[in-house]
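User: Assemble these into one structure.

Assistant: Restating your components, then the assembled model:
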Amino acid sequence: GAGVSQTPSNKVTEKGKYVELRCDPISGHTALYWYRQSLGQGPEFLIYFQGTGAADDSGLPNDRFFAVRPEGSVSTLKIQRTERGDSAVYLCASSLGRATYNEQFFGPGTRLTVL
Amino acid sequence: GQNIDQPTEMTATEGAIVQINCTYQTSGFNGLFWYQQHAGEAPTFLSYNVLDGLEEKGRFSSFLSRSKGYSYLLLKELQMKDSASYLCAVRDYRSNYQLIWGAGTKLIIKP
């Protein structure tokens, strides 16, 4: 595709439910990032994949959050037992590689609302 | 620790010039990025600085001083479509080369 795509664009769920957020990166991009962004704040790093492996998951807030990228392309962010504090826009980004000058291309985000 | 500071909001007039400042404190500086984010949309890349000096790209320029922990984004000939948030992000090699983001500067352009 032309850019990074994310589905769904909006997700409303109830406290305690399980959600999955999907990211389809730009073809050929080996690096994939998940961030979350609250209103009026910059993106907060969650996890970084290089290929199929999670190279850095230090930003995941707790063990309710998990992400996979089984074939090195599409990634899924999974949140168990959602809490109201999980409400945010979840952004996915991809880049050609990990080189420092590589810009990250962002998807449109998934707005998650936990009631 | 790590800290990135930007003004919360700025206002400028169409056709004018505006400078958005960013100061940072990191122990492992490895490059600075500026991104533009329109309301409800994803951030889009504007510029990258790793060496001191000015990088010019059309109406937008970005400056870096590593010794001062300081950068600015300069926008010339402002257009109404430049109304957006501008995010400063620093790559830190002591944080596994991840980007540390500022909260962004909301720029309001008035006719």
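Chain A has no helices and eleven strands.
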